[in-house]
Amino acid sequence: MKNLLAAAAVMLFAMSAYAQPARDLTDANAAARQHMRDIEPALTLMRNEADALSKISEIQRSLAGTPLTSIDTAFRTIDTYTTLMGRRTVGLPHDQQIIMMAAQRMLQDAHTTTPSDYPKFRDDFHHLIVHPLQLSVSRDMRQLIALTSLYSQLADSLRNVESLGINAINGSASDPTRQ
Question: Model's pTM, two decimal places?
Fold first, then answer.
């Protein structure tokens, strides 16, 4: 599965095609709660993606120091992070898992044998790890922005209906024939 977020969106639209429409606001509230439960794994995945990119950025910044200390710090950081990720029920999309494994291997190799050209190692880490991960997270962010736009449209529609109801209540409360 290339992108869990996109799959969740496709699943949402497929489910809504087979789902019964809400007959009233009680049904609509229940459907909204179910929908939130349905998309939570995709939102958790996006949080994990942002967390992974933040961790890789932290590692890249740690590589700015002296080679031995920097590599040791970076290796410990990614080792701790990947161990933590292994315990989570929702991990990362496959392409991002591959990037994280490549980062771990790259740092493991550097930890075992300090690179002779340390500036090249840092540059390679940036271009082979940071950039691909940034592109992948950006791709998924576009999906999240599209989802946010759909929810904004829905919220606007709900506010419009709410205003109609409030205006109707206010209009009926100010009946001049009643004193």
Answer: 0.76
